[in-house]
Amino acid sequence: MKKFAAFLVKHRLVILGVILLLAVASTFAMFYVNVNSDILSYLPEGMDMTEGLDFMQETFGMQGDAIVGIRGDGLTYDRMKEFADDFASRPGLKAVIWYGTIAEMANADISIPSIAQGLLDKYGITEESLAEILQQIATNPEVEDMFCPEENTYLLMLQLSVPSSSDEAMDLLEYIETSVQDAGFDVALGGSSQVTREVFMSTIGEIGKYIVVAVLVMFVILLLTSTSLVEPIIFMVTLGVSILINMGTNIILPSVSVVTFAASSVLQLALSMDYAIFLMHQYEAEKRTALDNRLAMERAIPKTFSTIAASALTTVGGFLALFFMKFEIGADLGIVLAKGVALSLLTVIFLQPSLMLILDKAREKTTHRLFLPTFKKSSGFAVTYRKTIVAIALLLLIPVAVLQGRVDLSYIKFTDEDPNPSEVEQVVDTMSNSVIVIVPVEKDEETGYAAQYGFVEDIKNMDHDVTAVMGLFTMLPESGTSLVDLMSDPMIESLLNMPGVGDAFGGSLSMITGFLNDGYTMYTIMIDCDAESDEASAALTDIRTILGQYFGDDYYITGMSQAVSDLQEITPTDFNIVTIVSVAIILVVLLFTLRSVKMSAIIIAVIEFGIFINLTLCYIVGQEINFMAYIILSSIQLGATVDYAILFTVKFKNYLATLPAKQAAYKGLTESGVSILTSVAILAGCCISVSLVTSNRIVGEITMLIARGAIISGILVLILLPALLVMFSGSQKLKKQRIRKRQKLLLRKEYKDPEEKDPTPKEETV
User: Fold this and answer.
1) Between 235 and 1, whose confidence is greater?
2) What is the value of pTM for the model shown?
3) Per-residue b/e over 369-391, b at no fewer than 16 CB within 10 Å?
4) How large is the average pLDDT for residues 179-205?
5) In whole numbers, what is the pLDDT of the chain averaged over residues?
6) Which of 23, 41, 352, 411 is the most buried (most CB within 10 A)?
7) Residues contacting 539, CB < 8 A, separation 6+
8) Chain center to CA of 120
């Protein structure tokens, strides 16, 4: 490392130029990173939601859905038809279904071309009978109630042929919203595609605000915790470059979740600032004995590298636990954060020395006094009242261990809700909570399609507020099932695709293929309740029971309520896995760092106690948190704040060799208190600033929990950890005897410098 440090100092200008070029290239690459805002796409394979979405795409060519509500005085049928026709011509749409789509069946000029006559004769369908069936569908009162729920209000169901998070889907929904608003009508959008769009817009549109606010807050903190006005600039430039490179190198990944893209930059900045501060402090110490600044830097780099590398290893260890989550967004967040911490480590070693040497004179001219307390008076508190502190912790242990598991979780509430929704927004919100089921269409020789009609009837009669059931068999009278026979024929698809044939049928049969294809039919069941409520969960259970009675296991189910059910299933497992794996990884790192099983176990226990307190506070204040924040909290709080404990424990252990435990703890706290307070202030300050300005609930809750966790962990490290280490350091009498024996050995032992041939002991060693 000495030769490596000399190389860095000698070629600092070349290294500076190369890194700045990488930062510029990464800035351009950042705009081409594929950002995935469809949170539900990270559900693992084998879940009901995932299988349902895959089957729906394969069978019906449908990758997303949306509901559009339009309301306003003067909204006539003809004006609504103009909207629907315009939307249908946009790329990314498979079908637009609204009242007019079905009402036009009654007015369709049925003219069966000769090429199709033979197929219709096969099922006994004539022009007259087909017209009658379509008329019955169009005049079904349930259809009108569904698509025209109120006066001057129309609803449209959109079936998208592109993924919900694609640019085409975003552009489509933006076009629909803008077109209706420009026409002077109220519009509301719902459904899975709109949820994805809201997450994307609330995050990408605010990411600049996150970074600006976090940088300003951190700059103020650094001014208070550093001794020069130039030092914060050096720190911010160093880590700012590492953040740009991290965000740009995300282009090598297939995609990055929108949560990762938004939160990783702020977390990387807050988690890595210690590395830059450590190098600055070590450089200042070396300048006192070195002949010049370059030599001081050459000495500071090797000594700093081992410290910050160990610190980075514990942080990365916490992130590695995220790879074991079943919910795949954990691996997405883990790899970006781990990469970010590694890049921060590299920029501190490669870039910061160049900036420090270049700006050294300016830094010395702008020095000021330190504004932080010295901790000399408060350090004795944890030692003096150690028994009381430990007793209080033991009393709290069981309650917090129980209550932390009772936190209320949210699953699909990704953005802040509008406290004053418009009338059309309320209608769309009600319709958006839908369960989509896909079932086989099998005709019984005796009962025909009775299973389909029985299923629909049982769904409508459930003991839940089912507002609508949309499907072919809810519109089609039992006397018209010959149309189902026709549409199930393998020849119908190729026939409808022939030039002129689809138009000759008035487009009616083509619309039906949106509900019936490849031997399966699709239903949309709308329930008037919140998708995360107990009512929605009970309704989903009853729906699955009815599906099992009629179709066995041969069915597929999707929708927001099903997504909530799947997420509720995997969340407890993921939380336990992340907790266990993060503890195991960091425990191994601690054992290598401290070489003490007892001290390592105490540190892990203290930080985990802090995590329990953090979650218990959520329960006490009735705070509902997103399931992702709940799962990843344990790994991030443990990985980010264990450094505080290591910093103090290493000093305590070193002093313990020559001092009694109480004195060792006092001196360790006195020397590490300022550094711990600085780290806590940086992490908490950055995260709190982001949580206060964001409208994305996931980002806001993650940053708020991490900020609170940093404060809790900092307090426990300064108060509880010293008390425990003193109490578990053995008998004070035996300790004093061991110290006196160690001091005698130190006085007698001769130390030999391996680089010196002269065997005479060096005086300064003693």
Assistant:
1) 235
2) 0.84
3) eeeeeebeeebbbbbeebeebbe
4) 88
5) 85
6) 352
7) 435, 462, 464, 466, 527, 529, 561
8) 53
Mapping DSSP to helix (H, G, I), strand (E, B) and coil, where does residue 528 land?
A: coil
DSSP 562-575: HHHHHHHHHHHHHH
493 token code pair? 């698809």
Contact between residue 265 and residue 344 where contact means Cβ atoms under 8 Å apart:
no
For 60, the token pair is 């019906």
* H-state helical runs in 488-596: 491-496, 501-504, 508-512, 534-551, 560-594
Enumerate the H helices of 11-47 as residue ranges: 12-30
Tokens, residue 291 = 């002949």
Condensed to tens digits (0 to 9), the pLDDT of residues 481-493 reads 888 888 888 777 7
Q: What distance in Å separates the CA atoms of residue 486 and residue 503, rounded to the nearest whole number?
A: 17
Residue 693 three-state SS: helix
674 three-class SS: helix
Distance between terminal CA atoms of the chain? 27
Report the SS3 class of residue 31: coil
Q: What is the gyration radius of the CA atoms in the chain, in angstroms?
A: 33
Looking at residue 168, its amino acid is E
For residue 656, the tally of other CB atoms under 10 A from its CB is 23
Residue 317 tokens read as 């260890």
- Residue 26 token pair: 């990464």
Question: For the segment 586-603, what is each residue's pLDDT rounded down to a tens digit?
Answer: 898 888 888 889 999 999
Q: Which residues, 6 or more positions from 608, have their beta carbon under 8 angstroms from its beta carbon?
A: 579, 583, 634, 638
- Which candidate, 139, 141, 133, places its Cα nearest to that of 484? 133
Rounded-to-integer distance, Cα 464 and Cα 461, Å: 8
Can you state the angle between helices 12-30 and 231-249, rounded to 10 degrees? 50
One-letter amino acid identity for 681?
Answer: A
Q: Token match 């991490």: residue?
A: 706
